[in-house]
Every structure is written in C-alpha cells, then in structure tokens.
Amino acid sequence: MRRVCVFCGSSPRTDPRYRQAAERLGRLLAEEGLTVVYGGARIGLMGAMAEATLQQGGKVIGVIPQALVDREIAHPDLTELHIVKSMHQRKALMAELADGFIALPGGLGTLEEFCEVLTWAQLGMHQKPCGMLNLDGYYQHLIEFFDHAVSECFFSPENRSMILIEQEPGLLLQRMRSYRPGQMEKWITPAEA
Ligand code: AMP
Question: Which domains occur in the chain, in start order?
C-alpha cells in the first residue's frame, strides 16, 4: 500500500474531536510514508487531515471538480491538485490513484464515496482494503444497518467482512496493510440464476 484515499466530511461545524482525529490520521499517514489521496478541499475534516499530513512532511494529492473549486475552497498547497470535470470523474480518479480507502466521519458525500468503493469491491472490480474509522461510535448505526442487511440476505457475510472497522487510526492502518482479499463468492451462482 503506497497511496491511501481518505473520504471525510467537509462540514466546518463539527465537534473538535472529529477534527483532531482527522489530524491524527493525517500525521500517521505521513509518518508511515503513505501518500494521501482526497477530495482536495481546504474545509472541514478534509482540510484538517490534508494540513496535518503536509505539516508532517507527507504527500497529498487532491482531486476536485471545477464546480467545487470555489465552493469547497481548493487547498492551495497540495503536492498535486487534479481539477476534473465532474463528481464522477473525481471518484473514478481517486479510486484509480489509491491502493486502499478510509472513511473518516462525514456526511452524505463521504457515505456515497465509501459505499461506491465497497460496491466495486463486492463486484470484484478491485481488491483494495476498505477501512472505516468508527470514531466514538459515529458509524454505529450504519454498522448495525450493514448487519441487518446481512441478516435479511441483501448483503453476504463474506462481503460484510471486507469492511475493516476500527476506532483507532493506527489499528485500522495495521489491518489494512495485512488485508488479504478472500475468494468472494460469485454474486449469483449458476443454480440461482
Ligand atoms: P460530506 O461528507 O457530505 O461533507 O462530503 C465530503 C466530500 O464528498 C465533499 O468533497 C463533497 O463534495 C463530496 N461529495 C458530496 N456528494 C458527492 C457525490 N455524490 N459524489 C462524490 N463526491 C461527493
């Protein structure tokens, strides 16, 4: 794993502990020599995490659509900034550049981005580790929903187990580094088709 894509909230109004966790992860990624790939903004947890990585001497690659350059205030000091045409291109390029994905606490954008990479993993389109930082139980309801989807047979246990969930950034990175993708069952077996 050389480059890790981090999805996280853009809101500037969250409790400071979320910002502190984003900074902790940002510093840790720099210390571990991992390049950060993210949405390129200067606001919210996104900005806090990027800033911490850069201050620790790490590399940060931002990917932002033209329409959001002003609204999310593109970070001016990144190692690289890719300005793309659409949200779809943003997600595709972030996914292509990264060897693994982390969801920090965030809103709908974070959720959408993370669920998309999980969906691609479930379909066998990539084998990259997908980690979720469940800081102070922020994602507890979503995790319960995933388990509900498994018990209702909309989500297979094998695919559920590819979501790596930890409360601590260090532990999460450790699990991502040692992640070995299992042999996923075919989504629909010939007998079920
Ligand atoms: P949020 O978690 O809603 O604060 O958003 C975090 C990041 O996700 C921001 O950079 C948003 O621009 C981005 N985002 C929001 N909606 C989408 C979407 N549908 N597809 C891709 N990125 C999105």
Answer: 3-177 (3.40.50.450)
